[in-house]
Amino acid sequence: MSDRLDVDAIEAGTANRYIGRKVLVYSDTASTNDVAWEYARKAANSGLAVFAEKQSEGRGRLGRSWQSSEGESLLCSMLLIGFEVEAEALTIAAAVATAEAMRTTCQVDVRIKWPNDIMINGKKVAGILVESKIVGERKDFVIGVGINCHQEQEFFETRKLKMAGTSLDIESGQKTDRNALAGNLLTTTDRWVMIARNDSGQVVNEWKRLCSQLGHRITVECDGVQHSGHCIGVDPARGLILQLDRGSVRMFTAAHTTIVKHL
Amino acid sequence: MSDKKQTDIQKVKELIDLMIANDLVELEIVDGDNKVSLKRPQPSQQLVTHVPMAAPAAHAPAAAAVPAQAQDEGLIEIDSPMVGTFYASPSPDSDAFVKVGDRVEPNTVVCIVEAMKVLNEIKAEMSGTIEKVLCKAGQAVEYGQSLFKVKPD
User: Fold this and answer.
1) Which of B90, B92, B93 has its CB closest to that of A35?
2) pLDDT score of B33
């Protein structure tokens, strides 16, 4: 049975969506984020969603690569032009939206590892990369989402990955309908991004519900220095909030911080 | 003799791929005395696809006998691997992937051919310099149609 991405199937039910009102599907490209940035030259392209069956130079946060194999992932980049929202809030909204789309499509229990990893049973199943460019007064964003769908255990065992990986097929025990997942991802991202713009508190509340760090003692590395403490929340503009072991409360922005230890 | 048979089998395989790629149920090509007629089972979804059939001769085995170089000495053509729509740039408002005089490597993306709503980046698959751009953005292209002429290194 063919599981190729199908523009018509993905666009079905997009009537009132801003994100995903236009959909492009590539068979093979270097990076869907790069394609989306090409379209950022024209404001009318805001809301465009770019999918690819294969990506040769997919990237993650902090210059890391995002590995995928042809036809086995859902690779999507969504373009927002002239959007008044904080990049941190957008990352949180995209994480919440990706988690919801996966839950709706595959009935799996999904958690978020700050700032941009989506986890099932402690293993990474999806990643998010929000990129921004400021053009004069205008702020443009590309939200890139990569979801492992059909990969088998072997895929993760044969690669050197920063953390253990898994796929939706492995976790749900069923073959993921990528077109349905794509449609749900556009719908949930559209909704959560609009919420983030109007009331980021609502996004933070949902993030708190799904976050695997909240209330736990963790160690983060920020600009080469390690800090340990209890995670007590997230701020949509300033990042992760830790009650440090030495007493003070400190915020860690996603741009410079990595969780190195999570108990 | 067996070489010719081999070429014919190769051509038929290419035609079958073309039919599958475009969900065609039936295909018939008549070129002088040669006639190829192919049928395959109805696809699950009925599609009405317009496939330009202007140059059947280009698909016929005879075409393979004429090397591309002969038409423009020393130049190699980059052909469209599918029936579709040609796009010269990554987005309508971007600069072209390549223009005349640009150097290309095997992995350089030279254009996009859209087929069945899927965008396919076409790579040069050779090293050289672009000498001619043969198509315009939005133009319908056929399987095997030349898109660029390249002067190889």
Assistant:
1) B90
2) 66
Q: What is the pTM of this model?
A: 0.77
Determine how β-strand B146-152 pairs with β-strand B128-133. Answer: antiparallel
Q: Which ranges of chain A would DSSP assign to H, the alpha helix?
A: 7-11, 32-39, 87-106, 153-157, 168-172, 178-198, 200-210
Nearest 10 degrees: Cα torsion B31, B37, B42, B45: -10
Q: What is the ipTM of this complex?
A: 0.81
| Closest B-chain CA to A10 | B117
B65 contacts: CB under 8 Å, gap ≥ 6: none
Range of the domain at B103: 74-152
Q: A235-246: per-residue pLDDT in tens? A: 877 788 999 988
| Spatial contact of A181 and A106, defined as CB atoms under 8 Å apart | yes
Instruction: Over range A169-198, report the average pLDDT.
Output: 95
Do residues B35 and B78 both lie within one domain?
Answer: no
Interface check A252 vs B, CB under 8 A:
no
CATH assignment at residue B113: 2.40.50.100
Residues A27, B93: C-beta atoms closer than 8 Å: no
